[in-house]
Amino acid sequence: MAGSAAVAAPGPSAPRRLNVNVGVLGHIDSGKTALARALSTTGSTAAFDRAPQSRARGITLDLGFSCLRTPLPPHLGPGPGELQLTLVDCPGHASLIRTIIGGAQIIDLMMLVIDVTKGMQTQSAECLVIGQIACQKMVVVLNKIDLLPEGKRQAAIEKMMKKMQKTLENSKFQGCPIAAVAAKPGGPEAPETVNPLGVSELIEVLKSQAYLPTRDPTGPFLMAIDHCFSIKGQGTVMTGTVLSGSVSLGDNVEIPALKVTKKVKSMQMFHTPVTYAMQGDRVGVCVTQFDPKLLERGLICTPESLQTIHAAVISLKKIQYFRGALQTKAKFHITVGHETVMGRVMFFSPAPADFSKEPLENAFDFEKEYLYQEEYLSKGSKSSEENKENDQTGEGQLPRQQWALLEFEKPVTCPKFCLVIGSKLDTDIHANTCRLAFHGVLLQGMEDKNYVETFLPKLKVYKLKHKEGQVERDYI
User: Fold this and answer.
1) pLDDT tens-digit profile of 150-172?
2) Using an 8 Å Cβ cutoff, are 310 and 448 in contact?
3) Res 46: pLDDT
4) Which of 73, 235, 251, 469 could be bridged to 288 by S-S, CB 3.0 to 4.6 A?
């Protein structure tokens, strides 16, 4: 994506500010919220489990936001300036995976928090998978080192570091930094006067890993809203992260789920009034005459810039840790952008002669013919074994790109080319298995409710039928 780096200057005399969004992900009870609190210099209205439900249950139930401000490191350009690390504290409970996926889509850098006494756990692994899909860089944080006996602490930390390096060696995060901390020595009941261990060293690691994310202020404005509340005498505040474009005071913004348009009255970034926000910024937007109960989370955008679709064609890849086949006609929980709905899938591939062709990025060719597949083709899948038998070379070549037709049980509102994740969230959360099945990019949405009659005939997918002595093909 073309554009400028994520640098904002609120006024002509203000120092240069670089904002980097840092996700805090990991298994439940690994100490993520305590770590965010230990790192932060400023909390937002949605930080550190302030919601009554989170306090009552003692776990994070929603995304939390806070920030750490520190002088701009030399590798990010000449000073004077400020690096703002916006910390996105994601819940760790398995049942809240939709929220975790939403949080992962707005981060530039990920902290994977591991309880040093337990190592990788089920949700740690799912968070790692989500990070590989949605994030470019990662830092592993081994937390709760205060629980290790002091005499054996360093040896235990080094042993866990080696285990983590082994776990990551076949991932995109091979060789990433690993830091050891105790965010809250003594646990949640310890007095606030107890100082964390290793946090200043972790801040230096985060500064070294911070980079200039590409930001593009042009194009339609789109923002993911995660909290909505009213302030007496001011109006309704919608807080979230700008996904694309920019917004200024006085702009009209649409809440597409409600078909409502409102004017931006005021804006703040971590309690500081601003007049402008762009892609990557965490911001609160205030509008008037809007009931906050109508929008817990969702999207706001430039009026009429989003599509509401009933079905879609996506390019996809199977997630390697998902056990079992991806079968046509199966139902999955489909996360499209920031919304999750049930959907049915139909997989298809290029014609066998085109298996080795270069994949098309962010485009789909409706002029070509495609081959229907009973399941996604991967090593060991039934369909790929059949192809191998029919292949005279005996190699059973797999296609470089595969697609799926998704049919949603209810319409979704989303931007073009957004991230799509298919999951089996009804799997037992206590089972030691990855529930994330595939990920991809939405190439073509179908806005017409009658898409079966108006749109699907344009999709040239055929089935091969084998009869003795001949091969026939039928269009679907």
Assistant:
1) 999 999 999 999 999 999 998 99
2) yes
3) 43
4) 235
H, E, C per residue of 298-360: EEEECCCCCEEEEEEEEEEEECCCCCCCCECCCEEEEEECCEEEEEEEEEEEECHHHCCCCCC
Are residues 239 and 287 in contact, defined by beta-carbon separation less than 8 angstroms?
Answer: no
- Supply φ then ψ for residue 312, to 5 degrees: -160, 155
By the 8 A CB rule, do 373 and 398 touch?
no
Place of tokens 């789909």: 364
Per residue in 382-418, pLDDT (tens digit) is 665 565 555 543 456 899 999 999 999 999 999 888 9
Residue among 205, 195, 198, 287 nearest 240 (CA):
287
265: left (phi over 0), alpha (psi -120 to 50) or beta: alpha
With tokens 């959360």, the residue in question is: 429
Residues 6+ apart with CB under 8 A from 138: 109, 110, 111, 112, 131, 173, 176
For residue 117 the two structure tokens come to 């006494």
Give the other-Cβ count within 10 Å of 22's Cβ.
Answer: 24
- The CA radius of gyration of the chain, in Å to the nearest whole number, is 24
What's the CA gap between 280 and 21, in Å, rounded? 7
